[in-house]
Structure formats: C-alpha cells, structure tokens
Amino acid sequence: MKSLALDFGRQYSSALADQLAILKAKGVVLQELSFVLTSSRETVRVLNALLAWLVQGVRRLELDTSTQIDENFTLSTKLLLDTLRIGSLVPELPSFLLPFSSAAPRLTCLELQPWGGGLTPTLKASLCELAPQITDLTIGLPPFFEGRDPTVSSLESLLRACTSVTVLRIVNPRPSDLKQILSFLPNCVALVAIFRFEMVIFYDLTPTHLAEVLDLPCMAQLRRWRMPQMARWWGAMSGGGGRGVASSLSSERDRASRRRTLLH
C-alpha cells in the first residue's frame, strides 16, 4: 500500500483504529498520507502508537484539518518526508514536524491552499522557519469569485523567506496576484507554471501583463514558463474530486521535468 487517506469527517472510531492496527501488524509502510476532514472543522486526535507507524516512511503528507498530537509524542528517527500539502482548514502544524531542520530535513516541496483569508499567525510562523529549505512551491488561490487580496498579501513574509525556491506553481491567479507573488520572491526562479480554469476569462494575461511579470528581478534566470489548461481539475479544487489539486500538480511536475521549451 502506497497511500492512505484518513477521513475524520466519518468519525475517528474504534473500528478505524482496529483497521489501522491490522495494517500496522501486516508491516505496511505508507508513502503518502492524508488527514482529511469532510464534515466539520473540529480538531482530530491520533493515537501515539498509530501515529509513529503512520508517518515513519511517508514521503508525502497532506493536511486538510487540524491534528492534535500528545505533548509527549516523539519520533525515534527523522522523517523521510519530502512533500507537504496544507489545506485551508489547518490553523497550525502537528508538533512532530517541528523543528523542520531536524524532524524533516528532506522536506523541500510545499503545497499551500490558503483559502479563507490566508494563513493563521501560528501557521505562518512555522512555515517561515521552513521556507529557506523549500525549493519547490505551489500556491493554490481560491476561485476568483471568492476574493483574494487578503490571501495574497498574507503570504508576503513567507514568500520573502523562500530563499531557495526555483520552481513556482500558482493555481488560478489574476495578473495582479501573479505579479504580487513574484515580486515577493527574493531570488530567481527557473520554472513558473500557471494553472487556470477555462472559465476565468476575465483575468487572462495580456502582453503588457506578461512583459511586466517577466521584468521582475526573480524572473531574470527563468528557463520555463508553462500555462496548461486546468478546467478538468475544477471538481478536485472545489472539494468533490478526491485528493484534490495537489496530486494533479504532482503529475504536472513530473511532466514539466521532461519539457525543454519555455513557451508552448
């Protein structure tokens, strides 16, 4: 088994605990783990004995809800985690991820979905500590009809701390969002990918917008610029498509590594 999604909206019951215990007894090692909450905004609690097994071999962790961990919980080994996805309902990170430099030294890919007004102060502080080790950053903005100015502005301190990012993906930005996000980055990026819905026709990049973006300091060493269509992912972004946009972006990332042209 490579991946497991725990839906706490269906209640973290003894039956679920028993099922996880069976997987543990069988020696199953997970590579991808998702904590999902579909029916409420409550904090979920994971038993220490199961948590250590759940995260021991995980390379990709997706957090869509607040997760409560016992204060005395510790991991005996460093995490193999390289990718972290954070949904809009996460107010803070679980303690086993902190400090990143010692708990998750391989973590270099961050996927954010800061809907609903942006990041909480606690979450932002933690991510600013992580930021220098991130090389691959994805930002999923809310649909244009939900409003976005506070969301983008709330990312400024985080983006300015991202001193190692070379790959940037932005989901559904307006030209103003794109320019603002790129202006916050302190160093040059090699790949920028813009994912859009076909329905967002009012915010297309004009030649003027594109010229302004390409003139930004962080774009001086740009090697690839990608704008694939994204209409087929609408269901995933709106909460009705399983694992969401992160898995789709991961597959796009794999394809991007095989592309050699800047514009196509």
TrEMBL record:
Residues 238-264 are annotated as: Disordered. This is F-box domain-containing protein. The lineage of its organism: Eukaryota, Fungi, Dikarya, Basidiomycota, Pucciniomycotina.
